[in-house]
Amino acid sequence: MDLYEFYSGRCFDAYKELGAHVVKQEKGKKKEILGTSFVTFAPNALGVNITGEFNNWSETVMERCHDGSFFKCFIPNARPGMMYKYKIYTRDGECVCHCDPYGFGMELRPGFASIVRDLDEYTFTDDEWMKNRSECKGSPLNIYEMHLGSWRCKPVVNDEGGVMTPEEIIAADKVSKTWYTYTELAPQLVDYLKEQGYNYVEFMPLSEHPSDQSWGYQNTGFFSPTSRYGTASELKEMIDILHKNDIGVIMDFVPVHFALDGYGLSCYDGTKLYEHPTDDVGYSEWGSKNFIHSKGEVQSFLQSAANYWLSEFHFDGLRMDAISRIIYWLGDESRGVNEKAVDFIKGMNQGLKDRHPTCILCAEDSTDYAGITKETKYNGLGFDYKWDMGWMNDTLNFFRTLPFCRPDQYHKLTFSMMYYYNERYLLPLSHDEVVHGKATIIQKMAGDYEEKFPNVKALYAYMYAHPGKKLNFMGNEIAQFREWDERRGQDFDILKYPNHDAFNRYIKDLNRIYREEPSLSAWDDDPNGFNWILCGKEQDVVYIFQRVVKDNKIIVVLNLSGMNYKDYHFKYGSGSVMEILINSDWNKYGGNTKDDFTRIIGCGGDFGFDLPALSAMYLRPVE
User: What sections of 119-251 are H helices per DSSP?
Assistant: First the structure.
C-alpha cells in the first residue's frame, strides 16, 4: 500500500494491506496456510494488542510499522474461521476492545469479534457475465429490491412441535432462526426473479451491522458480509449463481455514517479518527456518527470498501445511501455545500469507474443539486443514475387522491417530463415507501379494497412506460397490504386470493413487456424517445403518450378517472389498426374487459374505443 495515496485519499485497495490476511506458500499443487498477518491503522493509540481464539484470548503485542501509525503482527496458528479482536490502549489510560475496521468477517450480534476469512477460498465462474455486463443505459434495468432476511423465512417450531406464528417468533426473540443462508437463498432467488421478470436484484446493505432494525444502514463491519446469512464465500457463491442465470446484483453502500457502538469505528484509537471532531456535525439524524470526508485516510477507507465489494464479490453496482448528506452539511441546503465531501464522492466515483467501467453507481438523493449523473470530467458527481424522488412523491400523491378530485391533480403526472432530461433517472418504489406508518403501495391507493387494485395496476403501467429505469421493493409485486417488517417474511400466501393472484400475473406480464420492447428503455435519455399525444384533458383525467426507438413504437393510454368512457377518440398517424399489448382491465387481471379484445380498428389515423375507468393500455401501431 502506498502511504502517500492512503493519506491523500487516493487509495482504493487499502484492504489488501490492512485487516487479516491468510498467508500461504506453494506446496506441490496445493497451497499450505502458514498463518495470518494482521495490520491495523491506529495513529493515536499508545499500543495495540490482538486477542483471539488462536492465543486462547490472551494478548499478543502488535508492533508499530510503516510510519509508526500502523500496528502489525503475524500469528502462525491463526486460521480462517477463527475470531479475534484488537485491544486498543489509548493515551488516556483506557483499554477498549474493537472489531477490525478492515475485517473480512464478524460474528453474529450481540458478539462483535472479527473473523479471519480467506478471500481466495471461492473461485468465481462468471467470466462470461462479467465480460458482457453493462450499465444498461440503452437497455432495460428492472430491479427487485429486497431485504435478504425477510424475503422468505423458515418455519420455527415451539417446544411442543407446533409451527410458531410470526408474532410468536418475534415475542420469543427467535428471529435469527428464521433466516435462510446465502446458499439456501440462491436457487430460490433465481427461480423467483426469473418467474417475475426482473433482471437485477438490489440487496439492502449486507455489510455487518449490530441492529436488525437498522436494516444494515448503520455498519460496524464495512468489509464484513453479515454473518446472519453465512460466510463471505457463501455470499460469493450466491452472486456467482445469479450471474450464471443472467441476473445482475447491486448492493446498498453507506458512505455517510456508521454505528455508534464502542467496539466499531467510534473513537477507534482513542480519538475521533473516522468521525467529525465536533458534535454539531458529528451526529446524524439517525443517531449514528458522520464520517469526516475531508480526511484522506477516511476517503481511502470508504473507497477501498466500495472497491472491495465490486472486486472481491463481483457486485455489479452500488446504490449509495443518503447522498444529500454528502452534498449539504447534514443534508440541509441552508447550511451550504460540503465541498470536501462533494470532492470525495467525485473522486470515489471516478476511481470506481476507472477500475470497473461497467459497474452501476446509483445515488439515493432527494435534492435538486445539478450534475448528479454528469461525468466528473464535466464537474458532475459521476453517478450513472439518480433516484427520482420527486417522481415518486408526485405519483403516489396523485394516486392517493380520490378519482373525482384528480382533475386538480392532473399535472402531477406530467410535471416529471419538464425536468426529466436534467439527469439520468431511476424510478423507485422502494422499502422507504412501505414502512413506518406510510402504508404499502396498494394501501396508498384511493378507494376501498376493490377499487385499490385497478388504481395500482394503472400506477405500474404509468411507471413502466415512463422514461427511466425501474425499482420495485419486495411485496409490491403481490400487492401486499401489511407494511414491511424486517422480522417477518413476505405474505406470499395472499396469492391464494383472486385479486392478488391476478395482480401478480399482471406485474409479470408488465415486466416481460418492459424487457422485450426496446422503445420502453433504449431511448430513456433521449427526448426523441418520448412525446405526448394528449396531456391536456384535465377533466377527463386521460393521458396518452408515445415511447419510441427507431421503428419500435408503443402508445400508452391511461384513464385515471372514475368514469367509463364510450367510444373515446384520439388521432395518431394515418393507420387503421393497433394491437393491444396489455390492458389492465382484461379479465385475467381481475378486470371487466374480455381477454380476446386485442385489436383496435381505426380509420385514417382516428381511433375510437371504450376506455374503462382506472385503466391502462399499451398499444402498438400495426397498419
Answer: 127-132, 166-171, 182-196, 232-244
